[in-house]
UniProtKB/TrEMBL annotation:
Organism: Kushneria marisflavi
Keyword Disulfide bond assigned: no
UniProt cross-references to NCBIfam families, sorted A to Z: QueF
Gene: queF
SUPFAM superfamilies: Tetrahydrobiopterin biosynthesis enzymes-like (SSF55620)
Reaction equation(s) it catalyzes: 7-aminomethyl-7-carbaguanine + 2 NADP(+) = 7-cyano-7-carbaguanine + 2 NADPH + 3 H(+)
Protein name as annotated: NADPH-dependent 7-cyano-7-deazaguanine reductase
């Protein structure tokens, strides 16, 4: 386990505080993982966001009546830090028995605390539990999952990425993405979408590459950056977007995307599994 995770609440017994406590948030420097990918923090080849959705958010009105909501957070990939997921859950739980004047105040406090910890402006949106904006959708493009592939590699291997000389523009996706938490070893299930313009990616090989993350231990955000960099270096596309939609765990789901500058992201898309 890396030094930046030794004191993290993930994988440890934790008290569930129900009174507001912003000190529960645990930041992790993005630079640690990016160094292993030979990325320069001052000259990143991508832009992007980590989109979080929280389904277990509640607080009290000034009269003590509970309010429930669903929150969406967008953390820019340019932030110096990400937030460890269990600490985020513990922080949100600390709202449970705290009285706030209004949902406007809750949103202000959330934005203020999260932005301070990641050292960048975090976008916060609150939804009612029946808001149609949360209705699930489907990933666009070609689904690779029915391809007949033989797989014997379960750690990321960029050499699995194969291209030919034809220049194309396409969108493909797979629901077979699985990686593991680097602290607890628990499985993280997800779907991934890849949109690019450049030398055609061999679909069978690309699916085998996606599956190769199956025993890999890394945070969601790191997996997406690794996938983006592997495709960028091996295929040398002119345009590239990699977006993952991970299944909810502990009341939170995480959907990071990374894209070459100028690429239009696919936002506010939730899948049935989330």
């Amino acid at each position: 386990m890396s030094d930046d995770l030794k004191d993290a609440p993930l994988g440890q017994t934790s008290a569930y505080i129900t009174e507001y406590d912003p000190t529960l948030l645990y930041p992790i420097a993005r630079s640690v993982n990016r160094a292993s990918l030979d990325l320069d923090e001052d000259d990143l080849p991508f832009e992007g966001e980590d989109e979080w959705q929280a389904f277990e958010l509640s607080w009290l009105t000034p009269t003590g009546k509970p309010v429930v909501a669903i929150a969406r957070f967008r953390v820019p990939a340019s932030s110096t830090h990400l937030i460890e997921s269990k600490s985020w859950k513990l922080y949100l739980n600390s709202f449970n028995q705290t009285r706030f004047a209004s949902s406007v105040e809750v949103r202000r406090v959330l934005r203020q605390d999260l932005s301070r910890v990641v050292d960048a402006e975090v976008e916060v949106t609150l939804f009612g539990v029946d808001d149609m904006a949360l209705a699930p959708g489907r990933l666009p493009g070609i689904c690779l999952d029915d391809l007949d592939v033989e797989v014997d590699t379960y750690q990321p291997d960029p050499e699995l990425i194969i291209t030919d000389n034809e220049i194309i523009e396409e969108t493909v996706h797979s629901h077979l993405l699985k990686s593991n938490c680097p602290v607890t070893g628990q499985p993280d299930w997800g779907s991934v979408l890849i949109r690019y313009r450049g030398p055609a990616l061999d679909h069978h090989a690309l699916l085998a590459y996606i599956i190769s993350f199956r025993e890999h231990q890394e945070f969601h955000e790191h997996c997406v950056e690794r996938m983006f960099m592997d495709i960028l270096r091996e295929a040398e596309p002119d345009q590239l977007l990699v977006m993952a939609r991970y299944v909810r765990r502990g009341g939170l789901d995480i959907s990071p995307w990374r894209a070459m500058p100028g690429e239009t992201p696919i936002k506010t898309l939730r899948l049935m599994r989330q």
